[in-house]
Specification:
17% strand; Phosphorylase Kinase, domain 1; two-stranded antiparallel ribbon; alpha+beta; globular; five-stranded antiparallel beta sheet
Length: 215
């Protein structure tokens, strides 16, 4: 699509086929290793992160020189819930086959830079060479729909005009039926309460069953 207005009209038309977005396979062994690295690797340094929203964030440097974004639970209201949801978003992206949609994220106990206490925090891999607040026309139509499907599944309500970044050459896929399967819910059950988990599965099942996304 050539213009934002044309894209918006298409989005508002209301239906998009999901058939061509099905069937991705993650390299789960590598992603498991990455999550284990985030959970276990020694923290070398922590400092304030300038680009953050309501949840105050920190740049954490892990052994090996890897920078991650840390959001401690004690820097936002209902922090334990928020931290769980941050990690759950990544788990959902993995289940959908979209490990390129989000930076890998885990829930880990760290020493809070604010209070000095041991608290839960989300740790997320920072995208290299990313462009914040990128014009939506720089994204492919398939990327836009993929983000729309993800936001519909997780009931995301904060995708405003600065809550995404563009990373060159990102890929696309989805397998909603895996996410809707209760047998796949073990990891999410450790991060979300039962009501939130049920909502995710119901939305995924509805999208998988109809093959369309209604806006």
């Amino acid at each position: 699509m050539g213009t934002t207005s044309t894209r918006r009209k298409t989005l508002l038309a209301g239906l998009v086929s999901l058939d061509r977005l099905l069937g991705s396979v993650n390299d789960d062994r590598a992603l498991d290793d990455l999550e284990r690295f985030l959970l276990e690797t020694r923290i070398l340094a922590t400092e304030g992160f300038s680009r953050h929203g309501a949840h105050r964030s920190y740049l954490v440097i892990l052994a090996g020189g890897i920078g991650v974004l840390a959001k401690p639970a004690d820097t936002v209201a209902n922090g334990d819930v928020v931290v769980g949801r941050e990690a759950a978003a990544w788990t959902i992206a993995r289940e959908l086959g979209w490990s390129d949609l989000l930076g890998a994220t885990v829930r880990r106990t760290i020493r809070s830079p604010d209070s000095g206490q041991e608290v839960a925090a989300s740790l997320q891999v920072l995208w290299p060479d990313y462009r914040p607040i990128a014009d939506v026309n720089l994204f492919s139509d398939e990327d836009v729909w993929r983000a729309a499907v993800f936001d519909a599944v997780v009931a995301h309500e904060d995708r405003n005009n600065n809550n995404w970044v563009l990373v060159p050459d990102s890929g696309i896929r989805v397998a909603l039926s895996r996410l809707a399967d209760p047998r796949q819910a073990a990891d999410l059950g450790n991060l979300l309460d039962q009501q939130a988990l049920q909502g995710v599965q119901e939305r995924a099942a509805r999208l998988a069953g109809t093959g369309t996304l209604t806006l």
